[in-house]
Specification:
Helices cover 38% and strands 24% of the residues. With 358 residues, it is α+β, with helices and mostly antiparallel strands. The protein has two domains: 193 residues, Thiolase/Chalcone synthase (Peroxisomal Thiolase, Chain A, domain 1); 144 residues, Peroxisomal Thiolase, Chain A, domain 1 (3-Layer(aba) Sandwich), CATH 3.40.47.10. Helix 4 packs across helix 5 and helix 10 packs across helix 11. It starts with a helix and ends with a strand.
């Protein structure tokens, strides 16, 4: 397939992110969560405390603060009811902020895409958010569910396609509430890691063919099906349960460089030509592996590590938070390129090539 067939700008319009915003529930310190809740749950385990301290998180945000509410014995139905109550205002706040940042009126939105893997309802959160935001009755909608941490990237590709192919002003919202899925005390290391890392957030971007912003040029993906059980997100009677194999960094190390080389090579670029990197911080080891395989320095991954430090891992919302942090701390000149990378169950890697428009 030729580069022009991959290029999302190849139909004449150039889809670009023209507005972005986030919405966060109340913050809670990582140290306080350990001291007040999880130290007791893990019986004061020195190993669990070491894991808790090593994940690179200092502050998280929680719609359901485990210091105030213990949801670990709740059934999945009760958690889903709470999901709607907590996720809807976060999703609408982030979406309204993105529309305002882009200077786009609610009635001009033609497509709403909503990504989430932490809750479900019918009518869906996309319908409820559209009502709250005053989006038009003729709105087209796309619900991206249970893809996990990488969902924002294929969702961004889908809305960019809608802009380039059909001229639809598009709104993408990612909203995740991992705090709803705290599990009962368990000595498994992977559960300690999951409870130490994950955090709540909503992020939103407007994608349009007009205005300044980051052009969405291309996407690439890899799924290593031989390792599909190394990262899982299983629906159980007591919420959703994370599975995290210690092999995940090794698998990512095998695939991240070929993925990026393919993505950049279709546009005559190399890693050294990229001005900014938005790497999903699934954990400090994930960022370290990507930096090593891609030849990146500390400055290249600073936005990812800052996001991990200040927000934790917010599943699909995270890579958009990293892009916000990158653009805040490293202003881009017209024509400079950014690569966004995210990883999740499957085991799946997704990358997007973006370019700053004038």
């Amino acid at each position: 397939m030729s580069p022009s067939q991959h290029d999302l700008a190849g139909l004449g319009r150039r889809a670009r992110v023209t507005g972005a915003a986030s919405a966060l529930p109340a913050p809670v310190s990582q140290a306080a969560l350990w001291r007040d809740v999880f130290a007791h749950r893990y019986g004061g385990s020195a190993r669990a405390e070491a894991i808790w301290s090593a994940v690179g998180v200092e502050t998280r945000h929680a719609a359901i603060d485990p210091r105030l509410e213990d949801v670990s014995s709740w059934g999945t139905g009760a958690r889903m009811q709470r999901y709607v109550a907590e996720a809807l205002p976060l999703a609408t706040d982030a979406a309204a902020g993105a529309l305002a940042a882009a200077g786009v009126r609610a009635e001009d939105v033609g497509l709403l895409a909503l990504a989430s893997c932490t809750g479900y309802a019918t009518p869906g959160l996309d319908i409820l958010a559209a009502r709250e935001l005053g989006l038009p009755d003729g709105l087209q909608r796309l619900l991206v569910g249970h893809m996990g941490c990488y969902a924002a990237v294929p969702a961004l590709g889908a809305v960019a396609d809608a802009v380039t192919a059909r001229g639809l002003v598009s709104l993408l919202v990612c909203v995740e509430l991992p705090s709803l899925h705290v599990q009962a005390p368990c000595p498994e290391v992977q559960q300690v890691v999951a409870h130490a890392l994950f955090s709540d957030a909503a992020t939103a971007v407007v994608v349009d063919a007009e205005g300044a912003g980051l052009e969405v040029l291309d996407l690439a993906a890899r799924t290593d099906v031989e390792h599909h059980r190394d990262m899982t997100w299983d629906v159980t009677d007591l919420g959703f349960r994370m599975g995290l194999s210690p092999r995940v960094p090794q698998v990512l190390a095998r695939h991240v460089r070929p993925l990026v080389d393919e993505l950049l090579g279709r546009h005559g670029l190399r890693a050294s030509d990229v001005a900014g990197w938005a790497i999903h911080p699934g954990g400090p080891r994930i960022v370290e592996v990507c930096a090593d395989r891609l030849g990146l320095d500390d400055a290249d991954v600073a936005a990812s590590l800052a996001t991990l430090r200040d927000h934790g891992n917010c599943s699909s919302a995270t890579v958009l938070l990293v892009l916000e942090e990158l653009r805040r701390t490293r202003p881009l000149a017209p024509g400079e390129h950014v690569v966004a990378l995210a990883f999740g169950p499957g085991l799946t890697l997704y990358g997007a090539l973006l370019r700053q428009a004038g």
